[in-house]
Write a structure and sequence with these properties.
Elements: E1 3-7, E2 11-12, E3 18-25, E4 34-39, E5 46-51, E6 58-60, E7 68-73, E8 78-83, E9 92-98, E10 115-119
């Protein structure tokens, strides 16, 4: 049984930082590309970042490039998202997912509850 648990979301002021964490079980973590998808109120899911199974390559959406950094620790079955220079438009529910920019939608059934990030002054 696949289990995905996201954490670390909070309310922060514009320009602030957060670090999201995702803990995974139920599949061979080290063999899978991982990423983050977010969904803002009233909008559809937006893929924002992914990292290859061994951590050697990353992909970022233009909306977060230069501000967000994804990383993973295969010894802990965990993936992280460091978010800096947060903007109000980053406000969304953040989901951890298997897959990259062209495949994340195949794994939506595995998503946890997500973690809420709210950027507001």
């Amino acid at each position: 049984e696949v289990q995905v648990v996201e954490s670390g979301g909070d309310m922060v002021q514009p320009g602030g930082s957060l670090r999201l964490s995702c803990s995974i079980s139920g599949f061979i973590f080290s063999e899978n590309e991982m990423g983050w998808v977010r969904q803002a109120p009233g909008k559809g899911p937006e893929w924002i970042v992914s990292i290859w199974s061994d951590g050697s390559r990353t992909n970022y959406a233009d909306s977060v490039k230069g501000r967000f950094t994804i990383s993973r620790d295969n010894s802990k079955n965990s993936v992280y998202l460091q978010m800096d220079s947060l903007e109000p438009t980053d406000t969304a529910l953040y989901y951890c997912t298997r897959g990259g920019p062209r495949s994340w939608y195949k794994y939506t059934s595995e998503w946890g509850q997500g973690t809420q990030v709210t950027v507001s002054s």
